[in-house]
Amino acid sequence: MLFSKLNKFEQWAFDAMAIGLVLFYSYSAVLEPAATQFHRGVYVIITYILVFLLYRSNWGGIYGRIWDYILMVVAIVTLGYWILNFEAINYRAGAETELDTWIAVAGVLVGIEVARRVVGTIFVVIGTIMLLFGVYGDSEWVPEVIQHAGDTFPLLCVSIFYKSDGVFGIMANVLATYIILFVIFGAFLEKSGAQRFFIDFPLAAVGHKIGGPGKVSVIASGLFGSISGSAIANTVSTGAFTIPMMKKAGFRPHVAGGIEPAASLGGMFMPPIMGAGGFIMAELTGLPYSQIMLVAIFPALMYFFSVFMMVHYEAKKENIVGEPSKEKATDILKKEWFYILPLVMITIFMLAGYSPGYSAILGIVTCIVVSWFRKNTRIDLKGFVHASRAGAESSLKIGATVGVIGIIIGVLTYSGLILTFADIVIELADGKLWLTILFIALASLILGMGVPVTAAYLITAVVAVPALTELGINPLAAHMIVYWLSQDSNITPPVCIAAFAGATIAKANMWATAWIAFKFAKFLYLAPFIFGYVPAFSLDGSATDIAVTFVLVFFGTWAYSWFLSGIWLKSKKPATT
């Protein structure tokens, strides 16, 4: 664990800032919203400092640590300058001083370094290409269709750092408003002991059925994935238990390793958290999050149903049957029903119209209360610190992208590419919706190879949603199409980190595992077409239309899963005695 490598003072500083994040954003969500510059600035500045604390310089030794502290100072000065001079900078927009300019340059560069340390080099390369495109947009090597006036590097940095669609734009706002609180909620829920219930209950309910351990993987991943916010984290956490169990029951290693990431991916579509993408969707569409949750529930359930049925048919082909659990599902539910209270609490309050942030705080409080039902899971003061630390550390994986996302969105806006991309895609697709969806799938797959999937959704949505809406798709369905497709890099070769994580746990061939995950997650590619061609799938239509659509999609998904499983191609193995 990276935290354990910090010295005592650094550990104390990390914990203090983690608790500060929890308390500041809890106060802001429940009592009094903070002003824009503090609401976004505090999150970004603490994230940058925590990254430099936790992710050490590659140099190693005392000199590398000195460099880390220098970068912390640069982050504090540049971000603090934006916070303290927010109103003055907005007032003199277009006439920035020389100090404003150099602060902006340093702020943009330090954001790139933050992303490099946490996310990796590929993401930085994408950001660098966008900066070059911003500066040299009028060069002959830029295709004429996307050329723009260009600008000097310092002035481009000014635009990226100070304008509302740059570093402190939509990504910073969504991270500070929603994601940090829900990531922390996930840490508190895990600390309360709920994760064990999410595995024990499905194990007792379906573990003894045909393909039982595989079905446990699907249900457990649905429960845990709905709050984990990451297909990879879901694969690693639930997979550590379910993959060995599947192998023991008779699933081949690469199949066991592929089922788990395919199931884990569904957590990105499942309310109440939806891998944080739903919050970005709410911000971009202006719709209440409760409406997005309602639209997301049925497609998410159909995704899990598809994987569940494919597991069933795979097990049927191989005659794999699980072992009975020591406890009955009803007994476990009677003893541990309270572990679902935090999720129920969040869902009820969000559907009732309360803000996601307010609902997340109530969820955290419920986790603390629930934790005291068992002596060994009680979240006392020490447990509160540990959960806050775990939440803050988890948030860095997406929070570290805020600077480079600001560069990408800022340059796309500055260059006008957001406005022209829709026309380019529609022209290439010759106005055909199905071809437009395929182009978006390809773009999100390529982008997802170097960018976290939530960030890939935001970047793709900014340019692709206008193309879909011009073809007559309603805005929410258009966003759902892009959001579902943005997840494909998790399980689609060649870069499929969730599938590779499953292969590692299963001790299986990585490519064989990746293709199995790709096969079991095929509803991922069907849903965007249903969103595009069937308005009622996104609750756009009469009650009758929606009901008929749901019934047809249910049976269609069943048939789709049966066909893809290949059970009709292969006779069953004879049962062993």
Summarize the structure.
This protein has 577 residues and is an all-alpha fold. It has helices spanning 8-30, 36-54, 61-84, 86-91, 98-118, 121-135, 153-162, 170-191, 194-206, 212-228, 231-249, 253-265, 277-285, 289-318, 329-336, 341-351, 356-371, 381-399, 402-415, 417-428, 433-448, 453-470, 475-486, 497-506, 510-520, 523-533, 543-565.
Give an overview in words.
- The chain has 27 helices and no strands.
- It has helices spanning 8-30, 36-54, 61-84, 86-91, 98-118, 121-135, 153-162, 170-191, 194-206, 212-228, 231-249, 253-265, 277-285, 289-318, 329-336, 341-351, 356-371, 381-399, 402-415, 417-428, 433-448, 453-470, 475-486, 497-506, 510-520, 523-533, 543-565.
- The mean pLDDT is 86.
Mean pLDDT level: 86
Taken in chain order, the helices and strands follow as HHHHHHHHHHHHHHHHHHHHHHHHHHH
Range of helix content: over 70%
**Class by helix and strand content?**
mainly alpha
What gross morphology would you assign?
globular
Low-confidence stretches: none
Count of helical regions: 27
